[in-house]
Amino acid sequence: MSTRFCGYCGKELRNGSRCDCKESLDSGIYGGGIVTEEIKTAVSDNRRQIIIGLVCMLIIIYALIRITVFIFSGNADEPVVRSTRRDYEKPVTDFVSAYNRNNAWKMIKTMLPSDYIDSEKKKADDEWEDFITSLEDSLEKEKDRLELDLGKNIRLSAEIIDKKELNNSELKEITEIYSGDFGADDIKSSYKLKVEFLAEGYEDYDIDKHWVYVVEIKGDGWLLCPKGDGYNPGEYIGLKYK
């Protein structure tokens, strides 16, 4: 026989008796408000199912959000990062990325106009791959030298700590490099950036601060000039400017 309880005060009732609590008596109906244990259990189970359903729905919504971010991030291998990098900083950060990945091809594209690269590649297409390989070998050798002082797994990072407008003589020199050597006459903007380069290995690190030039060329965007102020990024791709 199932146990019965008052639906108002919860008192256990025996032999089908009516509860004597005020709410039950005021109801005016015999058995009013009386519920069985089975009904209470059913209500409890129903609430539990509702809670489980809500939790499952939240999990599904969260998964859909993650999938959406994954699809529209543009890169499944890297986290989504909202960058505040200014356009003129891009060639510096791309240069560092190319160095860390030992990617000579990307390093070339951070410095030289695309039309010049295409023309040079067409002139010696058979030798182009050998040229890229030789540059990447040079990068590896430089890292090997750094590892002797700093330890294994050399990583480069850069922080731009100052920016200046180019004076007339500097702008003239940079213009002559890009127009005379690379056939790019339309320099839209240019800056002189002071960059703190950090080379770090497992055992030690080294910090150097250099001024470099960045130029905005029509059709190519911002490029890192192979000549700096006492520092020549172009040496990494076989260009040496004094």
Strands, helices and their partners?
Blueprint: E1 4-6, E2 12-13, H1 22-27, E3 34-36, H2 37-72, H3 90-100, H4 104-111, H5 114-123, H6 125-150, E4 155-164, H7 168-181, E5 187-200, E6 205-217, E7 221-224
Antiparallel strand pairs: 1-2, 1-3, 4-5, 5-6, 6-7
Please, could you describe this protein's structure?
It contains seven helices and seven strands. The chain has helices at residues 22-27, 37-72, 90-100, 104-111, 114-123, 125-150, 168-181, and strands at residues 4-6, 12-13, 34-36, 155-164, 187-200, 205-217, 221-224. It is of the alpha+beta class and 242 residues long. Strand 1 (4-6) and strand 2 form a beta hairpin. The strands form two sheets. It has a four-stranded antiparallel beta sheet. A three-stranded antiparallel beta sheet has the order 2-1-3. The chain folds into two domains: 1-82; 87-237, Nuclear Transport Factor 2, Chain: A, CATH 3.10.450. Helix 3 packs antiparallel against helix 4.
Tags for this entry?
242 residues; three-stranded antiparallel beta sheet; 7 strands; 46% helix; alpha+beta; 7 helices; single chain
Question: Taking Cα atoms only, what radius of gyration do you get, to the nearest Å?
Answer: 36 Å
- Architecture per CATH nomenclature, i.e. the level-2 architecture of the largest domain: Roll
Based on Cα principal axes, name the global outline.
Answer: elongated
CATH overall fold name of the largest domain? Nuclear Transport Factor 2, Chain: A
Which structural category fits the helices and strands?
Answer: alpha+beta
